[in-house]
Amino acid sequence: MNALAWADRSQAHLWRHFAPVAGPAPQIFVRGEGSYLFDANGDRYLDALSDLYCVNLGHSYGEELGQAALAQYRELGFLSTWGNAHPATIELAERLAEMTPAGLNRVFFTPSGGESVEAAWKIARQYFLLRGENRYKGISRKTAYHGTTLGALGLNGIDHLREPFEPLLRGGVQVSNTREVALADSAAEKAAAVQRILAEVEATIQREGPETIAMLIIEPVQNHGGMLHAPESYARGLRALCDRYGILLVADETITAFGRVGEWFASESFGFDPDIIVTAKGLSSAHAVIGAVIVHDRVLEPYREPGALLQHGNTFGGHPVMAAVALKNLEIMTRIGLPAQVRARTPALEGWMRSLASHPLVAQVRGAGFLWAIELRSPEHLRRDATRSVYEDADITGRLRERRVLTRIAFDDDIPIINVAPPLVAEDVEFETITHAIREVLDEVRDQIEGGFALLSERQHQLQHQHQERMVT
Ligand SMILES: Cc1ncc(COP(=O)(O)O)c(C=O)c1O
């Protein structure tokens, strides 16, 4: 069956995520290899976003991962993690306790990142209940993405994701992210920005009442908002505030763990000392449906009391086949030395990314490891609030796809940001391809803006032309 037939069929019954039902048919991908995906026509595309920041190991290793799954299926295809346990799940918990920073030793498995966030919130809330305190609130940061289930959405800092579903779970409180730090020019200005943000966090804690706050959740590198991270003084400051007010510090490492920034966990790279780490995606390089909440001994303490019981669970958390695949993923990552490879290749990727900084449409390039953001500026003669529509009409994602590079432009707070996060096996040739494609697309968009074309109609005309050509061939 050819690509067009699959595209047609996809429109009948499949409900894609964050995709309009009435929108165009999707491109159909059928095969992967390393950093590349192949569509149903056999054309090769560079996956510059690790799909959803998750295919850390890339699109290969199917044979090994599949054999691990098969071996587990042959033994036992399923066992819940309620009353019983299974060797693969036990081994994975042991492995994670080994890999995480000291003290993070207890692992609760989930089926996803969002459910890991929710589980962490419940673990934190019940931790306080067991100690005789009713702390239920969670502080998170503006524009942060923590998942889309209704509980996790209460912590999500992205307004357009929250608003249709309000009222949400009570207790989500937002503070500033570290964008101000990212935009500061000098080290001294960054340090001052960190102090201002920490003061705001403290004022929020005091305003809300520390006795009501269970946790503060942060990503060591905040993806939404454009790969925001801050000097270690920020991490130390948050830890000190959490200690002062007895709040649990939760690191949402759903995308930053498992080598993405050159260590197994980004908390290590950025100086966070969390009480709980939340993770998912890279744990199996997305080849299995599995997430984990990794809890510090000090949080487990009240749960050790006789009669104490975490009132939480689900059917699939700790699924033996998913655990076996995750174990194999970690084994391969360790064998090929993935975090060290990322550290070794980061300067090259950074160099390519920073080479875009001088482009007239680029406001700032920032990132860490294999997580980069290219923030675009308002074209000179356009009003600031017109930036979003101009870049939306310019269809940068579509233009990059035409150049066989898959990535996304995000519009957090209406700021246009191109994201780059290739699989951790990507090398210089991939960095170069991504950079050239982005530069070409930005040149094209700049020419059109300067030429005064109405970007939307111009782009629509181009797409219509391509569609007609495709129908003819
Ligand atoms: C930081 C963070 N937390 C949570 C999630 C939600 O993960 P999932 O889509 O597996 O529920 C994501 C997804 O991108 C994420 O980036």
From TrEMBL:
It comes from Gulosibacter molinativorax. This is Aspartate aminotransferase family protein. Keywords: Aminotransferase, Pyridoxal phosphate, Transferase. Pfam families: Aminotran_3. Gene3D superfamilies: Aspartate Aminotransferase, domain 1 (3.90.1150.10), Type I PLP-dependent aspartate aminotransferase-like (Major domain) (3.40.640.10). Belongs to the class-III pyridoxal-phosphate-dependent aminotransferase family. InterPro entries: Aminotrans_3, PyrdxlP-dep_Trfase, PyrdxlP-dep_Trfase_major, PyrdxlP-dep_Trfase_small. One of its GO terms (molecular function) is transaminase activity.
